[in-house]
């Protein structure tokens, strides 16, 4: 049996994940959520000293902002939109007729002004830009959101809806690169105390199409993205559990973000795949949290 399906079945059998009938869309048990909460608190303990501003957005964002962000240019295959019924009584009757006959009823829906958030930081940039120029030392934000990416899979670490915790740094090139370098070290320490095997390697985002392949190659050549990888389903293809990203001035130019001196701001972020780290813990330490090593339980539960 495929290793990915085998691990997913173990998670279902243990009641940690709940099958909804859609690949990559799962319910979570109380035990699974408790591990997420403990990992979330551990992240906070590693980042508390920086004094980040805490912001929490819903899992949906402004469609106009989404379109302006450029996400559809790079990742159209991952995007998710929200459609709604906006018809009258006749339209409702037509929809019900389609349902009763087992026909496609999607044409009775219209695109709304909401899209599903693809990454926790995407709603942040227009908000930050509305505040005007950054202060002298830039800004640092602490984010957490459910995110959506349309990539159905039997790999439990590749969920369609998942949580992403992020720290996002805005400022000069030197400021944001120093932030990323600090978190490259902290990330290693963080996963180390969870007693998980890992490696850090240069990476690229899943850009779409022929032009996307060129962008991915350029991203790797410039070292703009690194990932902390943990074997979850495979030692040959370990799972990216943390990512460390330097966006250069892309979001600064897109949203008119400027430094205190009036230059285009640069941004960087560190992202934590909350479910992925939980899955790595269950993979390497077992599905029964009570049997986890005492040293690890002290880290997470005190």
Helical coverage, percent range: 25-40%
CATH class of the largest domain: Alpha Beta
Domain count: the total is 2
The major sheet is characterized as: 7 strands, mixed
CATH homologous superfamily annotation of the largest domain: Bira Bifunctional Protein, Domain 2
Counting DSSP H or I runs of 4 or more residues, the number of helices is 11
The overall average pLDDT, rounded, is 96
Protein name: Amino acid--[acyl-carrier-protein] ligase
Organism: Alsobacter soli
GO molecular function, one term: ligase activity
InterPro entries: aa-tRNA-synth_II/BPL/LPL (IPR045864)
Identify the notable features of this structure and list them briefly.
single chain; alpha+beta; BirA Bifunctional Protein, domain 2; seven-stranded mixed sheet; three-stranded antiparallel sheet; 12 strands; globular; ligase activity
